[in-house]
Structure formats: C-alpha cells, structure tokens
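Moderator note: this is an archived Q&A kept for reference. The question asked for a predicted structure of one protein chain; the sequence and the answer are reproduced below.
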Amino acid sequence: MNALTQPRVDEHPGPGEIDFSRWFMPQALTPFYHTPAYAGLADSQRLRYNQLNALYFNEQTMFFEKALARNVIGYFLAQPLPDRLHAGLRQFMAEEEQHTEMFRRLNQRCAPGRYHDRDFHFIKLPAAAARAFDFMSKRPQWFPLLVWLMHLQEERAVFFGRTFLRQADDLEPNFVAAQRKHLADEIGHVRWDEALLDSIWPRTNRLLRRFNARFLAWMIGEYFIVPKRSALRVVDALVAEFPRLRRHQPEFNRQLRALGHDAAFCSAQYSSESVPDTFKRFGDWPEFNALARVMPGYVPQMAS
C-alpha cells in the first residue's frame, strides 16, 4: 500500500479528515514546480506530486528535529547555563518533540502504507553519513556550524509557515493547521538559536570558526540547494502512481538536477526575504564569505 490513501472524489471530508482534492502545500515551495516539465503534467499529476512532496517536506522537518535539535539542544542542556536560557532550551526540546509527533501522525494518516512502521520514506541517509551526523550533533562545541544550520532552517521554516498561511484557502486544512502550530513555536526557537550563537560563536577559536564556515558551505551546497536524492525519490513515487510518465522520468530528473544551474532558483532557496536575520548574522563574520559560492542569494557584507 505505497500510494496515498485517497477517498472517493465525491466524498466531502468531515472534520479532521484529509481532503485529497486539495493541494497539501504551496506549489512554489516544491522543486518540480520550477521545471518546464511540471507545466506539462495533467492536473491530477501535479496535485499528486504536490501531495507526495508535502510528505517529504514533513520528513525534512522531522529529520532536523530528531537528528539535529535533539542532540544539539541535549548537549547544551547538560552544560551550566543561565537559568532563563536553560528553561528556554527545555521548552525548545519539548516543542520539537511535539512537532515530530504532529508531522509523524499527519504523514501516517495520509500514507499509512509508507509510514506505519517508520518516519522516513523519501529521506534515506546512508549508514556512514548517519553515524557521522550523530557524532557531530552530539559535539556542537566542535561543530557549532550545526547551531547556524538550525538557525538557518528554522528561520526558513518561519517563512514557509507564513507562506502556507497566506495561501490557506487553497490548501488542505490539516496541513495548514500543522504549519500554523509549527510557525507559532518556531518564532521562539529562532530566538533561542540566536542566544546560543551569541554565547558560543564569538568564543570559538578563529581557525575552528573558519573550518566550520567552510564545512557549512559544503553541506549547504551538497544537501540544501540543488534537488537531489530525496527530491528524485518523490518523482519516483509519482511515476509509480502514473506509469505512463515513466518514459519521461529521465527528463524529469535531468530538469530537477539542472535547477542547480538556475540562478533564480538557487538564489530563491535562501534569500534576504526568507532568512534575513541569518544573513545579517553571517555578514558579521568574514568566515561566511565562502557561503556566497554555494548560496547565490547571500551577498557578503564584509571583506575577508
């Protein structure tokens, strides 16, 4: 049962039921929307791609909250901290657990065959990479780039959440409700990220700062700008549901990968509109000038 569970088209969903006749997320937040091939899909195919990508979108949120925030925040909670910061981080951790459960339940309701015994279907981290990520996230004193990554992703999540709410009338109500809850909490999480950065980054050795900035640039270029791996698995799932698209799949994949050379697309992934505070903070540290090579939307404000 790999396809989305879907009611008859003449059924009107009751309170809390998933309405499979609606978009699950704003189309412009999905990568395939930005390719020429997307316009050539039938309406039903675009809708289903959108729904599948929304499940992947939820997986992304769960991955960061389970694999990143839990370990990083857990490390700092074990350190001597001011009472206010300690209390804030405890709340941060509790809310992240709530978010993970909320998105887990939503994905399970939409696609029980995919998610009845696991949280991740589209995200498949190789075992070696998972071990390395776990090692790093438990040692943010050596890898403070992960706090920067948390700040970057959570500020972007605020932007995404507001985009959902602006388009709420066109979107599936359960997905809007989840984003509304997530947005309300993420605004506070961004502030706690900033408090951690203010505490640890200025005290980080200059050479270690430079290493972390370059490592962050590599991670963003490899995993966060160009649609790869998981984004292609979403297309795999679409083709599995619409077999007549199979002959077009190599071209679909080519166009998705080609977005890495699309200046407008790459600039929009992280921009002064979506992550203004993170960009401003990057600009205070010349180590982050290296980000401009992989993040076209970032324009350094300081000379090296």
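Archived answer notes: The first helix runs from residue 36 to 39.
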